[in-house]
């Protein structure tokens, strides 16, 4: 009877081991696979004035991804080559912004047409839990003086890969792009490809948004000088400078000052007032509603105004007469 009991218990133990192994296999993560995809990469938003003197940088999807059990990746041989790009972002309102493609976050290794760069498993970065890819790094070249708008360009890449998906038993399953040949001395341990094959083409679309901007570059204070009599004050010219986005319209308007009494602005010294006004080069009086209008060039633009004391007013007591006028730049 003891022998029979022993024969009955053994299959039960074997069945338990088979079920445990089956459960383990069912729990195995999805295996890795690699492919290319058409990528959309954004360089973000920058004002036109900032773009002239600065580079706009950012990491971009390179159009290559590996999905599945990425945590088990042990070895990867990846190569990318730049097939075609004119390295220009073309604007919806005209103008171009030059840019460059780099393969490192330090922006030291530029990728040029006909050149290639190689990567390993450590270069595969997580893309949000669904896979990992090799990013590229884009940067604009300073100096572009362009209108506001959306700027786009494309980069055509060719990807080659041989990626090991390390299984539970420690054996690599290799995923290779078309034509890749690797030396595999033991049949399982494979090295750097001896032939990278034809690879797979993909296109990366790059977008940059340039916004309009204006700034007052200089607005010097006006000194009418020292005179004993009102009639001795002469017209004084002053030049102010602004800078606005190329082709962007803008308006300069002058406030009425702190002591306005129509139709005169007035400088004050205590309770005393000295009437004056501000005029354009065409001798028209500049007011909040009568403005200077212009089109921006992206460069500094100077505007000359004249300040004239009313010669027909009565003489005023000696003192320092002051007024503050607000200049509003609208665009």
From TrEMBL:
Keyword field: Signal
Signal sequence coordinates: 1-32
Keyword Iron-sulfur: no
Keyword presence, DNA-binding: no
Stretches assigned to the Spore coat protein U/FanG domain: 31-157, 202-328
Pfam families named among the record's database cross-references: SCPU
Membrane spanning residue stretches: none
Protein known as: Spore coat U domain-containing protein
